[in-house]
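Sequence only, no structure available. Ideas?
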Amino acid sequence: MPDLLLPFLGVVAVLTVTPGPDMLLVVRNGLSAGVRGAWLTGLGCCLGIAVHATAAVLGLSAILAASATAYAAVKLAGAAYLAYLGVRLLISAIMSGDAPTEETRVHPAGRTGAAFRQGLVTNLLNPKIALLFLTLLPQFVADGEPRLRTTATLALVFLGTAVLWWRTFSLAIGPISRLLSGRRSRRVLDGVAGCALLAISARVAFEHG
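Reply:
I predicted one. Tokens follow.
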């Protein structure tokens, strides 16, 4: 067990519950489609985290960090995807507000559906997550510890914390979703979420670093 596991858990807990695009999507899909919608979105986020963590452990994230062009390309792709989701939600709010579109529908058991895809793609196209793993994990590898094994263990702890958080969050949001199941509530929810995603997209696209 890594010597600095407890302080690492504290940092991970704060990072995991900090609001961002992933939490906005989980909230929106959870309020729209209940526990399943939130949970599938959260699982998509977790798979994205797993990919970034694996890349960091294998040293692949360093390539992204070293290339300003690659970093900018991933960042702009992520901003474009958030803008796409925002526009789709605004269209849903204007046109219907009652029946979810194909992009926001959660399909029956056996199919992961759009919610999972949204969580996954949003995380994969966020280069800051790659840099987070690249810079955070080495700080909690104590002198004398095997670097590769310890880094991999810390990455698994990060992933496990994320899975636990999104499962708990999805269960908590279920009862609220039943109170907001009407047409008017759906339109307001989609409108607010769409505007928020567009604002986040603009911030991501134009921020430096």
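Residues 21-206 form one domain.
Hope that gets you unstuck.
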